[in-house]
Design brief:
Number of helices: 12
Strand content: 5-15%
Shape: globular
Low-confidence stretches: none
Number of strands: 11
Length: 474
């Protein structure tokens, strides 16, 4: 293809769901991302394989599912990680600028990039180039009053860059069915949209720098996010709100303005696609496939993903998603969704949910997340039930869909190594990952009795989860 672009810019928002104006959200103020979508293609069925940052990024940069090589636990450290797709780019003479967040569940080797101090806006590298830009402002901690991850700066001070007319009124905040409609939740949602508006401003500066460059028409711009919004039942969980994400691609001369595509795209597809756009061969051990350009593979029938240990809380969930249905398999249904996890306990929304549960005032769909156990299987029809609060797994009318997705997940899990099936102690003993369990053992604190759901102490390991499940099932 004579006019194939040689350059790629990857813009990555943190903790950001499909809350953009171009995805139909009328509460959002995202004119720059909406402009990017108007100039390119918006994907409606794009999914990460993990609803939390490090496992999500690890699959994106290696083209492999994180449980293939040991990066599946949030906050683990793989001792001998695979090559990154950036190594392939550099070997082919592409300049790689990666100045911002890595967080791959392993330390990238020094040769993964040419430049790690690149900042926007400035002149782009010499062609051909790949540039990565991360936007931290929408991180879960961005909704909190002050937190070390936000430099300890109060929220209003962090928002000084955002014009007053772009701030969001909590009274108008859209509250999903699985969250209680209380002031704390509305404030968190409004703050998230403030942060998203600020992310959009910063994305706009990047787009302006690209548009002002002579390389503009030879540069593919890709915008996506690592996982969903940092609220209960979104980040860390495998529902649409945690794993179905925005994906926008602008490719001048090759993608018509305003295109919309409903193909299923997986985050492990990014590495092979970026290599293909740059004319670089794909390694044969990738799990992903090319979804764009002359080498695009046939559209997927399913995408797959899951979650494992989150810091100090063990769990194991896997999902299979088709265009029509979303299927989840909870490997530890005896463990509730709301086991104490140190980081999320800082979230005002989560604090409000615990308080309302203790007071007997958490009701309806919002009460489900605080249940004592999970179902072994869940099946949802997202078009009819976008908040995924109507589990169809036991509905005879959807038995065929359940069987189809169950079989698809079984077949997928049988395709390659699945290190998540092994206790972490065995992975440590084999030298796959470093021993970080003592670090997270220290975070296994007890909740006040009135707020407790599930085990007194969150299970840190598979063995502890098995023991708890046995204790309540007999």
């Amino acid at each position: 293809m004579a006019n194939r672009p040689l350059n790629v810019v990857l813009l990555v928002g943190e903790d950001t769901g499909r809350h953009l104006g171009c995805y139909g959200n009328h509460y959002a103020h995202t004119p720059n991302l909406d402009r990017l979508a108007a100039q390119g293609r918006r994907y409606t069925n794009a999914f990460t394989h993990a609803p939390v940052c490090a496992p999500s990024r690890s699959g994106l940069v290696t083209g492999r599912y994180p449980w293939r090589y040991g990066a599946h636990h949030m906050r683990s450290t793989v001792i001998d990680p695979p090559r990154l797709f950036t190594h392939e780019l550099r070997d082919a003479g592409v300049h790689v600028a990666w100045p911002t967040k890595t967080d791959f569940n392993f330390d990238p080797p020094p040769d993964f990039a040419d430049t790690t101090d690149f900042t926007w806006p400035q002149q782009l590298p010499e062609e051909p180039f790949f540039v990565y830009a991360n936007f931290h402002v929408t991180h879960e901690s961005g909704m909190w009053e002050a937190h070390p991850h936000q430099g300890g700066v109060p929220f209003e001070q962090r928002m000084a860059e955002l014009p007053a007319e772009l701030r969001h009124d909590p009274a108008d905040a859209p509250v999903p069915a699985y969250l209680p409609d209380v002031p704390e939740v509305r404030r968190d949602i409004a703050r998230y949209f403030d942060c998203l508006a600020l992310q959009d401003l910063r994305v706009g500066r990047c787009l302006d720098a690209i548009d002002a460059s002579p390389a503009r028409d030879r540069t593919v711009v890709i915008y996506l996010t690592d996982h969903g919004r940092g609220l209960a039942r979104e980040k860390r969980w495998c529902y649409d709100a945690g794993v179905r994400l925005p994906l926008i691609v602008r490719w001048p001369g090759m993608i018509e303005p305003g295109e919309v595509c409903d193909d299923l795209v997986a985050w492990v597809d990014l590495a092979p696609t970026i290599l293909s756009l740059a004319g670089v061969p794909m390694p044969n051990d990738y799990d992903g496939q090319v979804f764009l350009g002359e080498h695009a593979a046939a559209a997927r029938e399913f995408v797959f993903g899951g979650r494992d240990r989150m810091d100090a809380v063990f769990d194991r969930v896997r999902f299979a998603r088709s265009r029509r249905y979303h299927y989840l398999r909870n490997g530890y249904p005896a463990l509730p969704w709301s086991v104490r996890q140190d980081y999320q306990e800082n979230q005002p929304t989560f604090q409000a949910m615990r308080r309302l549960k203790a007071e007997g005032r958490l009701t309806g769909d919002a009460a489900v997340f605080m249940a004592d156990t999970k179902p072994a299987e869940e099946l949802y029809d997202p078009a009819a039930d976008p908040d995924m609060v109507r589990n169809l797994a036991n509905d005879p009318a959807h038995a065929a869909a359940l069987a189809e997705h169950r079989a698809a997940l079984d077949a997928f899990l049988a395709t390659g190594p699945d290190l998540s099936a092994l206790p972490e102690s065995e992975l440590i003993g084999r030298g796959v990952v470093a021993d970080r369990l003592p670090e997270y053992r220290a975070l296994c604190e007890r909740l006040p009795e009135a707020y407790r759901v599930g085990p007194e102490l969150a299970p840190l390991t598979m063995q502890e989860a098995d023991a708890y499940a046995a204790s309540i099932t007999g």
